[in-house]
Amino acid sequence: MEAARDRLVPDVVADGLRVLFCGINPGLMSAATGHHFARPGNRFWPVLHLSGFTPRLLKPAEQHELLSYGLGITNVVARATARADELSAEEYVEGGRLLAEKVARLRPGWLAVVGVTAYRAAFADRTAKVGPQERTIGGTRIWVLPNPSGLNAHWTPATMAEEFRRLREAAGAPG
């Protein structure tokens, strides 16, 4: 796994997506496989399905199927690490700047940042909470979702799926 440190995981994006999901940064398992949210125990894929965004549970290796549902994935910081706390404040700020440029170029309906701490650091918004944000990037609205990492134990799959479902409904995605 250490060989995957600092590797990049390609974005799964297209112009005009309904929702662009944005992780904090790739973990080592994601970097090793080239698939987002690839670590066993990460709840992103099950929660995406439970919330109705996908008609079946996708595996990380099937990430490109998201595009057929008007969904995509990127990260705040591209560099892979074992833990998000290895990232510097400067990396978050620069990642936020680059993310805003990407969103302005791709024009998704919603940017969904998975992790309130990452959103706060990247966009200098210390009071942000999970849910829709006041800030927009051009015409793109922003929603902060709970971090699906297994380390975020106070959010259960059911409570995370409910928050993802709220975003799905706001985005007008079929369910």
Automatic annotation (TrEMBL):
<keyword id="KW-0326">Glycosidase</keyword>
<keyword id="KW-0378">Hydrolase</keyword>
<keyword id="KW-0227">DNA damage</keyword>
<protein>
    <submittedName>
        <fullName>G/U mismatch-specific DNA glycosylase</fullName>
        <ecNumber>3.2.2.28</ecNumber>
    </submittedName>
</protein>
<dbReference type="InterPro" id="IPR005122">
    <property type="entry name" value="Uracil-DNA_glycosylase-like"/>
</dbReference>
<dbReference type="GO" id="GO:0016798">
    <property type="term" value="F:hydrolase activity, acting on glycosyl bonds"/>
</dbReference>
<keyword id="KW-0234">DNA repair</keyword>
<dbReference type="Pfam" id="PF03167">
    <property type="entry name" value="UDG"/>
</dbReference>
<dbReference type="InterPro" id="IPR036895">
    <property type="entry name" value="Uracil-DNA_glycosylase-like_sf"/>
</dbReference>
<dbReference type="InterPro" id="IPR015637">
    <property type="entry name" value="MUG/TDG"/>
</dbReference>
<feature type="domain" description="Uracil-DNA glycosylase-like">
    <location>
        <begin position="10"/>
        <end position="171"/>
    </location>
</feature>
